[in-house]
Amino acid sequence: MGDTDSTSGAPPRRPAADRLPGSWGARPTGVPATVPPPYLPLGFLAAAAVGLVACGVAVALVRTSATTDPTADPVVAAVHLGVLATLATGILGALHQFTPVITGRPLRSVRRGVATLVTWVLASWLLVAGVAGGYPAIAALSGVLALLAIVLVVTNLAGPLRVAGKGAPVLGLRLSLVGAVLTSLLGMTFVLDRRESWFGLSGHADVAMGVVGLVAWLGVTYMGVAQKLWPMFLLAHVPTRRPVGTYAVSLSFAGSTTLAVGLGWGISAAGVLGAATLAAGVAAHVGSLLIHVRHRRRGVDVYLVVTLTSAGWLVPAAGLGLASELVVGSHHHVGVALAAGALAAVGGWLLEALVGHAHKVVPFIVWSMLRAWGVAQGPAGRPLMFSDLYNATAFVASYVTTTLGIAGLCAGLASAVPALVATGGVLLALSGLVTAANLAIVPWRLAHTVATRATGPAVPPSPGHDLVASR
Ligand code: HEM
Question: What does each of the 471 residues of the chain score in pLDDT, given as a tens digit?
Fold first, then answer.
């Protein structure tokens, strides 16, 4: 990247012919042509951090009803601060960043991506306001906005995802779009039902929505994208190509949608078949992670610990889900509490993965952004590194608060102990604050202190950057 402008420190502007529509025209040299501008994925991730803090606070506030009646409106609102304002928002950010990277094709439109961000964040928060405040019209509007946001996502990503021969990651991303459509249609039906009272929604229907949203959409996205991220971040070269990643995304999608049908319509054969298929898909996902861990060339670090802990939440999720199904007929209240704990554990799997990967992905994106602004050196005057862009101790703090927060929430819901639920909520809010501060404040201060003296020599692109960009 020996192309820094000697007067401003900023890399030269790219020729117009090199600027693909739907991509970042001002990217520095060395960054692939298809990536979107940094503000798009970073906007989603910042909104997700705000969602996590709000979710933690809301969970602490509804601790008693969460243990006595998990389907009460204030609890539904807190749940959606977690699943929509945090997890889905973060995963949508990942979809907009990684679809172009994985497929080698840009988004159809960056503006459409921004419209998705605004529409989705509005939908998430309006649902919370409509449900918590008892305004069915506002909840209905949120359903329309959520569906609109997903239509925008599909039309933006469908083109790049037509690419052939990219294996499990692209299959996962395609299935995830189907999962997103199904989830938003279910959400639309649920919010309209609140207004029109077409049918009484059972607890099983609520769990069905949780399974489709958390697994068929968000989980399958993570499973697919992980097939690209694990080799990069673990420096793992798996010698023989195995279809285990393909099994993970396809079986998990098929299993979760079949399970949801079984739960929603009370068809026990579909429930059992779906659960067994889903278990096989999850086993393939965990197996693939273990294969990557075995072939990694990087030692034990926080990223590895976070990624393994994330997968570990699938064990209590399965155990609590099974226990719930076994006891709900005879001890309804206990069964409902165990189901709530199981869903919290599934959410924990995704949240832990989101927090861990944010500490890898955000520095990559911010590095490119700072380079485009002409920041060439880190605080010590050496070439700017990814590790300059966050504090490693704060990453550990994020890991600890996230893990203990999920543990408190899971245990508190499953055993119906409000104090544990509240502790989990407070820790999750803390985790959102620490993560956001670590990933935003450190680069922000660096940009300010270094930009003024950043006319130093050009920095070669880091090998890690090439990896995230092109593999
Ligand atoms: C990733 C996406 C989603 C997930 C994981 C999810 C999950 C859940 C869960 C677990 C419940 C039960 C909550 C409880 O009983 O405390 C629920 C209920 C509900 N969800 Fe969602 N949801 C998602 C998306 C949406 C969307 C997009 C909407 C509409 C905008 C929506 C509207 C509702 C409503 C209205 C209820 C309450 C239904 C009732 O009256 O029982 N959800 N959802």
Answer: 333 333 344 555 555 445 667 777 777 777 777 889 999 999 999 999 999 999 999 999 999 999 999 999 999 999 999 999 999 999 999 999 999 999 999 999 999 999 999 999 999 999 999 999 999 999 999 999 999 999 999 999 999 999 887 889 999 999 999 999 999 999 999 999 887 777 767 778 889 999 999 999 999 999 999 999 999 999 998 887 779 999 999 999 999 999 999 999 989 999 999 999 999 999 999 999 999 999 999 999 999 999 999 999 999 999 999 999 999 889 999 999 999 999 999 999 999 999 999 999 999 899 888 888 877 777 777 888 888 889 999 999 999 999 999 999 999 999 999 999 999 999 999 999 999 999 998 888 877 766 555 454 444 444 444 334 433
The whole-angstrom separation of Cα 267 and Cα 389 is 51
Whole-angstrom Cα distance, residue 106 to residue 24? 9
Atom of ligand 1 nearest to the CA of 127: 30
Contact 352 CB / ligand 1 (< 6 Å): no
Tell me the backbone φ, ψ of residue 331, rounded to 5 degrees.
Answer: -130, 85
Structure token digits, residue 302: 């926080």
* Nearest to 372, CA basis, from 467, 439, 441, 447: 447
Please name the residue whose Cα sits nearest to atom 31 of ligand 1.
187
Nearest CA to ligand 1 atom 33: 187
Give the separation between CA 74 and CA 57, rounded to whole angstroms.
12
Rounded to whole angstroms, how far apart are CA atoms 352 and 77?
Answer: 21
Residue 345 one-letter amino acid: A
For ligand 1, is residue 127 a contact (CB within 6 Å)?
yes
* Separation of CA 166 and ligand 1 centre (Å): 33
Quick check: CB of 75 below 6 Å from ligand 1? Answer: yes
| Under 8 Å between Cβ of 350 and 220 | no
Of ligand 1's listed atoms, the one at least distance from the Cα of 343 is: 10
CA dist 379 and 449 (Å) reads: 8
* Separation in Å, CA 190 to CA 72, 139, 183, 197, 200: 14, 9, 10, 10, 10
Partner residues linked to 219 by β-bridges: none
- Phi, psi of 45, rounded to the nearest 5 degrees: -70, -35
How many helices (DSSP H) and strands (DSSP E) are in the chain? Answer: 17, 0
Residue ranges per domain, the chain?
A: 33-455
| Range list of H helices, 72-213 | 73-82, 89-103, 110-133, 136-157, 168-196, 203-211
Angle between helical axes of 268-294 and 220-233 (0-180°, round to 10): 10
Q: What is the CATH number assigned to the segment(s) 33-455?
A: 1.20.210.10
